[in-house]
Write a structure and sequence with these properties.
By secondary structure, the protein is of the alpha/beta class. It is built from 7 helices and 5 strands. The longest helix is centred in the N-terminal third of the chain and has 15 residues. The protein is globular, with a radius of gyration of 15 Å.
């Protein structure tokens, strides 16, 4: 299978694992020359908070792409990809994290999705759900899971 497009799903808790996520994407996309889509999904409340923090005023004054482009996590990963010579674009979405990533992976016809997460107990998954698990089960392509370092 030829890799042309890799989607890196970035969420609100990924600021602590940017190095691991970027390294995984470079290892996957670099050798094949694939382009990367950095996708940051915000819930409506997260979007409004991020838009205000970034100086847009309210969420209605900014698009999800504009907020994602200025978000620290995306910018840090982008710097690492620039340094590695990996081409990328940035997408922002507002909604349910898993649903939006799955929709974007279908819309863009990506060849691989990379998602971060942390170790969870079986009962933790059952009670609280897991965005990464939902993406792994529903994505139309292979998914690489990058586990957070303890």
């Amino acid at each position: 299978m030829t890799l042309e497009t890799v989607l890196l799903a970035v969420g609100p808790t990924d600021h602590d694992r940017v190095d691991e996520l970027a390294e995984a994407v470079v290892e996957i996309a670099g050798p094949s020359g694939a382009s990367v889509v950095l996708a940051h999904v915000f819930t409506p409340d997260q979007f409004d908070q991020a838009a205000q923090r970034l100086g847009f005023g309210g969420g209605s004054e900014a698009s999800p792409e504009e907020v994602a482009n200025r978000h620290d996590t995306i910018r840090t990963i982008g710097d690492i990809l620039d340094e590695a010579g990996v081409e990328y674009t940035i997408r922002g979405r507002v909604g349910d994290h898993a649903t939006e990533i799955i929709d974007l992976s279908r819309t863009l016809d990506v060849d691989r999705v990379v998602v971060g997460g942390r170790k969870r107990s079986p009962s933790g998954k059952a009670v609280f759900g897991s965005v990464a698990q939902d993406i792994m089960l529903e994505a139309p392509c292979p998914v690489t899971f990058v586990k957070a370092q303890d």
